[in-house]
Amino acid sequence: MKHIKLKASSNVYRLILSQDASLEDLFEEVKLFTNQLINVDRDKDQAKLVIESPNRILPESWRAEVQALIQRRAQWEVSFTSNVMSHERAVAWHKKVSLQVEFRSVLPGEILEVDGDILLVGDIHPAGYLRAGGNIFIIGRLEGIAHAGVDGDQEAVITGTFSDKSELRIAEGSYSIDHLLDDKSTYTPRSYYITERGQIDFTSVDQIQKIRPGIDRVVNQLPSYDDFVEE
């Protein structure tokens, strides 16, 4: 085969596509590859096949056709990876990993929603609602609702000063913190998080990194190789 190379390690196979070949030529060679899978036991062989297209974005229709072609021959888990991404994916990724800074208050009945982490310099008033895909850091009063990790991130934290009017939500859970409040709660910043037992707890802001080591990640860091893998 001129335009594709097969590499194998353990139970993972990598099919590397040439960036110079046309999609039509690549598809024909993938068909030849699948013909070699005709005797694979569909019930027993559970290998993973990663199709690598280093410097080209493969159309979704092409990927779907190739995936169906391969899985008709063998019950393999098929994924695609590339060193490049579409503009839409790049924008979505940037929003997710960037720390958004807002100098404002969240007013009663208002909803402020961000994709990743947020630093809010301002108050959340009663019936105000802040939703974040990542962590929430508040420099101000929290008298409304702060919901971190809205997409199910149990590792998310909420940092700020709190009172009996504060309502905290992390991932799918909603938590009362009344039993954790004391005289210092309204003026001493604390970080609330979910323990391994699924309970809410807090620690001082200078200790949260020991519990959540990744919280000090570099803002706008490049994603890892796995972030480019498309299922």
TrEMBL record:
Pfam families attached to this UniProt entry: MinC_C (PF03775)
Residue span, Septum formation inhibitor MinC C-terminal domain: 106-200
Any one Gene Ontology BP term: cell morphogenesis
Record's keyword terms, sorted: Cell cycle, Cell division, Septation
SUPFAM superfamilies: Cell-division inhibitor MinC, C-terminal domain
Domain of life: Bacteria
PANTHER family (UniProt xref): SEPTUM SITE-DETERMINING PROTEIN MINC
The protein's assembly and partners: Interacts with MinD and FtsZ.
Protein known as: Septum formation inhibitor MinC C-terminal domain-containing protein
